Amino acid sequence: MTKLENSYPLLSIIMPVRNEAGYIEMVLNNIFAQNYPREKIEVIIVDGESDDQTLDIINTYNVRHLDLKIITISNRERIVPSGLNLAIGYASGEVIVRMDAHAEYPEDYLPRLVDGLKRYDADNVGGVVETIPPNPKSKSKAIAFAMGHPAGVGNSFFRIGASAPMEVDTVPFGCFFKSVFDKIGLFDEELVRNQDDEFNGRMRRSGMKIVLLPDLKIKYFARDSWHNLFRMFYQYGLFKPLVVKKLGLLPTWRQLIPPVFVLFLFWGGLLSFFFTLFSGLFLFFAGLYVIILSWVALQSAFRNNFGTFFYVIGALFLMHISYGLGYLKGILAVLVKKNVFFKIMQTSR
Fold this sequence. Notes:
Blueprint: E1 11-17, H1 24-32, E2 41-47, H2 54-64, E3 69-74, H3 80-90, E4 95-98, E5 103-104, H4 109-119, E6 124-132, H5 138-147, H6 150-153, H7 157-160, E7 166-167, E8 175-177, H8 179-184, H9 195-205, E9 210-221, H10 226-247, H11 253-272, H12 276-303, H13 309-336, H14 340-348
Parallel strand pairs: 1-2, 1-4, 2-3, 6-9
Antiparallel strand pairs: 4-8, 5-9, 6-8, 7-9
Helix pairs in contact: 5-13, 9-10, 10-13, 11-12, 11-13, 12-13
């Protein structure tokens, strides 16, 4: 096990970005306001050919803060795993911290991660994602609520939290010893999404330890459009079967609920036109589903406002459908040919 040489090892913060003009300056300010020596931080930003003002903002920030070490490199592949791997190649730190520009971090985030590596003899540590709306609109609040509720994301501890630090299968973003990448390799560039799951799966298979710090909260800004929400969860579902295949694992029951739901809607709806029995069963389970979604939406209505009620129902339904459709297509791609994913990657960026 690699040990830290001192209390403040050099940190390489790696951050793949694309079109983050609305958040990039905030997250850079967030990083350099940490309770961690500035001279012990290098930030490596990998830009996926942004076509907004992201690069201009980074360049202006660099000019204003010449004392800070910020490296910007281009990611022509425009996908997260290739960006992460490029950044790791440039990293000179003993510890590598992956961060997302679409999030806000507490001021003790970096020291807590470093302490977590030492305290728990871990190879990767991370906190809990607290999904928040990017604006005060009811729609944005509803999407954020759905993305942080078990009805939308299942029982992932890094999303729903835990009562104490615990060993887990995966954490968001992650803080690693650089030696981890020497031992098990880099992120799998075939995985546009879910590359974290596959990488952490390889870590666990190699006997490495991943620890969740539940009181370390990361504020993640939810997407605020139906299109982006659908695309995100469609891609999560799409690449999950490939992760399962690569790791040689059986899919969990939780993963299979959305694709089974999609099949139920299609076949149940179709058969109900021809058979009375199927019609009754279809209406019963469809009604039960609507009741569950309505109950979750009521929770949002009391927490936020009643204007979120129907938006929450819509967001949850969209998340379930998009993940399920993606998962079914992912299964088909795995069964047909592996290189189908390369074609999918071109259309999923």
